[in-house]
Amino acid sequence: QLKNEETYRYALGFGLLMLLLFLFLLYRRYQGAQVQKAEIAEKNRHITDSIHYAKRIQDAILTSDQYLQSSLDDYFVYYQPKDIVSGDFYWAYKPDENTVMVAVADCTGHGVPGAFMSMIGNSLLNEIIIENGSTVVNEVLDSMRTHIIKTLDHGDEKGQPKDGLDITLLEIDKSRRKVKIASAGHRLFLYRDGECHDYKGDSYPVGSYFGKEQPFNMQEIDVKRGDILYLTTDGYSDQFGGPNHKKFGIAGFRSLILKSNRVPLRDQSKIYEKAHLDWKGSNSQIDDLCVMGIEIS
Asked: What tens digit of pLDDT does each residue of 189-240 get?
């Protein structure tokens, strides 16, 4: 009996020793995990700070509100990146007193990759239109595509889609009340007298597209005082939500245009923001958003 009790004590002591050793190792692992967690958090903070700084740069590149106010009679912009920086951008330039050129673009990707592409797209518009003086809207898109393919083509597998952008580029002639449109992958919406009309652009993007680079087309429409032009990227209509978890859709966007025109144009950005948030609900935002409204005076 004494021998059994002694064996039991030895076994109990050995078990306690192993338990202490296990707890010690567990504690060391916990300490290591905490150190790694702190290191990861610090790296994430540095990355986030860098992206926030990149956002400041991107915001500075976007056409300023002051310039838009001096170029357009009445307008609004609803701009909401999916992440901190955006692959969507808007741009405007006033060549003379009677003409203003406006673009809304959606670059490949979102977040940091999309932001890089948006800076390329913005720079190309400045170079082709402002520096080189080319203002024929469809030729501008042709030129942009040539530059993008030349810049980004590094001998990838032939026939594969590459980086590029969808865009609507307008030339608004205030004196003649005409609008010239070149659009790649987008459509322009026109609100007039309680009705919504749309003008669909070319189906291919500004960039390499399976080796099928066709010239972009130009449309010209007559406008009148009180007409409102709406430019949008596809992030708004592609957002999933609602009671049946489906896309907001083009029909939903048309309906929103009709509803939003019950208030002055300058206040409509709040309506588009609320409609998006209500539709999205608890779902994640799937893409960058950019909607721009311009009234013809």
From this structure: 999 999 999 999 999 999 987 766 789 999 999 999 999 999 999 999 999 9
Other beta carbons less than 10 A from residue 226's beta carbon = 11
d(CA 57, CA 31): 39
Quickly list DSSP for 62-78.
SPPHHHHHHH-SEEEEE
Bridge partner residues of 165 (DSSP)? 107, 206
pTM for this prediction: 0.85
Q: Is the pLDDT of residue 183 over 60?
A: yes
Nearest to 250 by CA among 227, 262, 234: 234
Radius of gyration of the chain (CA): 28
Q: Which of 226, 245, 238 is nearest to 291 (CA)?
A: 238
Residue 221: name the closest of 191, 180, 189 by CA. Answer: 180
How many residues does the structure list for the chain? 297
d(CA 71, CA 94): 6
In single-letter form, the type of residue at position 189 comes to F
**Which pLDDT tens digit goes with each residue over 62-96?**
999 999 999 998 999 999 999 899 999 999 999 99
- CA 142/CA 213 separation, integer angstroms: 9
